[in-house]
Amino acid sequence: MIRPVKRVAAIHDLSGFGRSSxxxxxxxxxxxxxxxxxxxxxxLSTHTGDFEGYSFVDLTDSMEAYIEHWHKLNIDFDCIYxxxxxxxxQINIVSKFIDLFYHxxxxxxxxxxxxxxxxxxxxxxxxxxxxxxxxxxxxxxxTPNFTEAAYLLGEEYNTDINEDKIKKWMIRLSEMGPNxxxxxxxxxxxxxxxxxxxxxxxxxxVFWKVSCKYIPTFYPGTGDAFTSVLVGSxxxxxxxxxxxxxxxxxxxxxxxxxxxxxxxxxxGVLLERVLDxxxxxxxxSSYELL
Length: 290
Ligand code: PXL
Description:
The protein is of the alpha/beta class. The protein contains eight helices and twelve strands. The protein has a single domain (6-289), classed as Ribokinase (UDP-N-acetylmuramoyl-L-alanine:D-glutamate ligase, 3-Layer(aba) Sandwich), CATH 3.40.1190.20. The chain has a ten-stranded mixed sheet, with helices on both faces. Strands 6-7 form a two-stranded antiparallel sheet. The chain starts with 6 loop residues before the first strand and ends with a strand. The mean pLDDT is 95. The structure holds 3-hydroxy-5-(hydroxymethyl)-2-methylisonicotinaldehyde.
């Protein structure tokens, strides 16, 4: 049966305040006409970036029965998309989920959410990084930010980077399993005050780059929003460079919609003001071959 709407299993936490993980992923993919089936990994009162004293309910114990029910129902997915995970056991459950539900037309996207700006998130451990390295071997696409790429490779975080070095990193990451490696928030590689998203497709041996002017600001949750637009765009049938471009354009629009207000960054970007743009056709693009 051809489904009228594509379906994604989204394995992420639900953080009630701060527009990250499921509270960003569900509205973005729904706006793009994709059905989101969440597998909640944990419930937090807020995300862990720049909030203290948040409540955290780990849902690991309920995940296996939840997944088993879906398996019995024979639900199949066009995409499995995982993000923030709360423990080593959870990483292993996601790995099992992929084994159970994978089929030839299923896109497996692992966003190895672990760190940013050179630092691991407070709930992450070295053992989880080690297990994340195993999980990415099962993905078709991974979307680490620059810090996470360094952690996955066991490299030092250093923003002094050049084209040759980032290309070598991407090839090494693809050798760990995924066919497509996308690194976000890559610092300036040409001294032109840009920040870039760079992608490497192993099968075609091609690098793509989408740059945007560096905006000196940081909002949590933009990684989740970027990967969600990328997933939605690929499921709509776009090419990889167009999907990258749409992701970057959306995040840029979100940041611009938020930056002009005196708005606490930890509350995330003003998604609600920009969501509608996801329904518009692409009228310009700026991707390039690297
Ligand atoms: O946006 C990534 C993310 C997801 N989930 C939780 C987080 C973060 C980043 O801080 O804390 C709980």
